[in-house]
Amino acid sequence: MHYLVFILGLVLSLGVWAAGSQSDSVHILNLTNSKLGYTCLFIFTVAYIAVILEEYTDMRKSKPVLLAAGLIWALIAFAYSQNGNGEIVGDAARHNLLEYAELMLFLLVAMTYVNAMEERNVFEALKSWLTRKGFSLRQIFWMTGLLSFVISPVADNLTTALIMCAVIMAVGGHSKRFIAVGCTNIVVAANAGGAFSPFGDITTLMVWQKGVVDFTEFFRLFVPSVVNWLIPAAFMMTAVPNDKDTMQSQKQILMKRGGVGVIVFFLLTIVTAVVFHNNLHLPPVMGMFTGLAYLQLYGYYLKKTYSYSYLARKYGMDIEEVRRNARLGSMVPFDVFRRVARSEWDTLLFFYGVVLCVGGLSLLGYLAATSELMYAQLGPTVANTLVGILSAVVDNIPVMFAVLTMNPDMSHGQWLLVTLTAGVGGSLLSVGSAAGVALMGQSKGLYTFMGHLRWTPVIALGYGASILVHLFVNQSVM
């Protein structure tokens, strides 16, 4: 925690120092060296420390950043109103709200589809299949890593990591060493897989929706992402025993009726969002909400064709037994609005707080100063590499949003580089990504901060190698 505060203080103090040479605009106030600016920095830092301490305080991360966002913008509005320029703050706030609304509504549809697949037992069926096959521990190590890498570009890396961790826990329950290294491998693979797709992480989604990188151009990061995962995985495999006496679950779990349909409509929704954005020049969120209509209509179909006699035949029960189960809620027809209600609202509200806080600091002048220091003086390659390292300490969402808000003048290849580093940099520490934090809780102390830290050197090797590979294979756009 002390090093986090130190890094934040260092970055922000350097931003203040670099801002000293900026001239005041006629309308935009430069408040970087004012008491109000320092107060806003203090509020944001305290709020973010509270976010980091969520695991120990049990206070959801959205609460402190929501309060901080309100306080920061109130202070800025007060300062501008004293100069007769209050409307500037209003316009800036609306601009930030529009950016948040597009991303939030996009994520809401994606989360609804993921929740729908969970409700239809899509992920449980996959886990059941893996745990019933009797693979060796090394086979499970590679399969869970590969599936994490493959699934996370479509689903999000957090959901993918949780599913694969459940497999690791189920088949390797007698080997604490295997669970620790297997979960580390999953975190690295899920973060790497999410880096080359707009749907793999919130940061890549922000880059895509901002229009900085086109949808197909994300696949330029495929090879660097593979390198980012495979290099540390090759080292970690040496710690996995080649044990075939794995724990097998004899319980078979099947997908519920409509599970395959939900998967198909989710893929169709992705295609719709891409077409809306690339070909029709409309916001991707409009394509996603069109895709939500697919899910709603499919849910209506499932509801209208729900049959007690069909379920009785499928599950080998008599109709009265099916009716009893339906009343108890175990076999209810699909309801799309329940899936919307189960979205990660804490994450969505946290995202609101982050966007507004960073937007406020930008209006104060800190991001312009930091951009000048990092990208003009250090150079884009060094700056983008540091962004990835910083995202291992601070959540990558505010880091990436800050970079997008700075909008530094750099080549297309450099924008791809910062997309890569912000996505995979969180793998350096277990607390550097949502996937790592979630797995520490799910594994019940078997996957820990220190257990992950043991592999940080080889993960860092993969991080550095992925950057070099990107600079080589994508040198035409650098």
Could you characterize the architecture of this molecule?
This protein has a domain at 259-333. The chain is an all-alpha fold and 478 residues long. The model is unreliable at 1-26 and 327-332 (pLDDT under 50). The two termini are 36 Å apart. It is built from 24 helices and no strands. It is globular, with a radius of gyration of 24 Å.
Short description:
With 478 residues, the protein is an all-alpha fold.
Topology:
Elements: H1 2-19, H2 35-52, H3 54-57, H4 62-82, H5 86-119, H6 122-132, H7 137-151, H8 157-171, H9 176-194, H10 202-209, H11 222-237, H12 259-278, H13 284-304, H14 308-315, H15 319-328, H16 336-341, H17 345-364, H18 366-378, H19 380-391, H20 396-406, H21 412-424, H22 434-442, H23 449-453, H24 456-473
Average pLDDT, rounded to a whole number, is 79
What are the secondary-structure elements, in order, as H or E? Answer: HHHHHHHHHHHHHHHHHHHHHHHH
Structural class: mainly alpha
Number of helices: 24
Q: Quick one: how many beta strands? A: 0
Task: Estimate the global geometry from the Cα principal axes.
Answer: globular
In whole angstroms, how far apart are the ends?
36 Å
Low-confidence stretches: 1-26, 327-332
Helix content class:
over 70%
- C-alpha Rg (nearest Å): 24 Å
What multimeric state do the chains show?
single chain
Strand % is under 5%
Biggest beta-sheet profile:
none
